[in-house]
Amino acid sequence: MIEELIENGEYLQALNQLHDMNDEKTRYLRLVCFIGLGEFEKAKYEGAHAKALAKETYYDVISMYIMALKELGEYEEAIDLLIEELSMPYIPYQYETLFNTAYDEILLEKQEARYEVENKNQIFSIEEINQLLNKKDCNEDLLYMALDQLQQLNVRMIIPTIKTYLMDPNKHFFAKTLLMEIMIDQQVDEEMEVEKFGQIYSFNPSYMPMVLDQLAYTGILKYLENALESDNPSLFEQCQEYLEYLLYSFYPQEIDEMDYNVWAASIHYYVATLLSIDVDLSELEILYYCDLEAIEEQILALKQVEC
């Protein structure tokens, strides 16, 4: 009878029949009613009591409690609760998925709510960033906002999480490079490894250059400048942008000075093709002083970043 009233949206009538405060299901249904009535302050109060009592209804209570906190704009408390639950050794799959989605949504709402009144560098705590990096799947907007803020925080506090992230083949190669640059900037002196496109690279951030401070950047760019800057400045700009993206993608892979011309030729060909500009590979051999087979091989290598 009570559940039928709730299903029909008759929350007040249902609430009037829910009196046994020592029964966990009663507490849960009262919580549902307060949420349904938009009484989020009362739902928060009821949620705290229902959580303490819940066993069989535990995850349902947590879900509703988090909803109440979210509606009240109490994002920190909701986030702390989600982090606590997501750090547990076991969560039923359906609730893990639900909590992960809620975590992303609440962080975004928190960012939007604070953007106008706070410096954006104060939006995420180091604990929240740590949680994001530990997630199996993460909203990309959130990830890159978090990495942007991490530049202003002490990255050493989450080095173990970063090490795991860098070695996970399922994590995006570009985000891995941004993490590496943050550690370089903060002069983290520690031996680490990173996985990129099936290869493992060892590195120590304190001895590494920033991506665009590599000799390879100026070396490859010089070849592109000589070939394109005068004849096709627009294509040159596109090639420069793509070169930067590639270097961020493959970092910390070392590029031999003898291969700069091959990289430049393959970038020229690839970008021109994307822009529907006809390019004769045999002409690139002459323009960049390199072998056709080497260009074709490098083009295939560069296509790894499409995935």
Element layout with pairings:
Layout (H helix, E strand, L loop, with lengths): L1 H6 L3 H5 L8 H13 L3 H14 L4 H14 L3 H12 L6 H23 L10 H9 L5 H11 L8 H9 L5 H13 L6 E5 L2 E5 L11 H15 L3 H18 L9 H15 L6 H8 L3 H11 L5
Antiparallel strand pairs: 1-2
Keywords:
307 residues; mainly alpha; Serine Threonine Protein Phosphatase 5, Tetratricopeptide repeat; Cyclin A, domain 1; two-stranded antiparallel sheet; 2 strands; 64% helix
What does this structure look like?
The model has no long low-confidence stretch (mean pLDDT 88). The protein has 307 residues and is mostly helical. The N and C termini lie far apart (54 Å). It is elongated and about 85 Å long. The chain contains 16 helices and 2 strands. The chain has a two-stranded antiparallel ribbon with strand order 1-2. It has helices spanning 2-7, 11-15, 24-36, 40-53, 58-71, 75-86, 93-115, 126-134, 140-150, 159-167, 173-185, 215-229, 233-250, 260-274, 281-288, 292-302; strands at 192-196, 199-203. The chain has 3 domains: 2-115, Alpha Horseshoe (Serine Threonine Protein Phosphatase 5, Tetratricopeptide repeat); 125-210; 212-306, Cyclin-like (Cyclin A, domain 1), CATH 1.10.472. The protein is 64% helix and 3% strand. Helix 3 (24-36) packs parallel to helix 5, helix 5 (58-71) runs antiparallel to helix 6 (75-86) and helix 9 (140-150) packs parallel to helix 11.
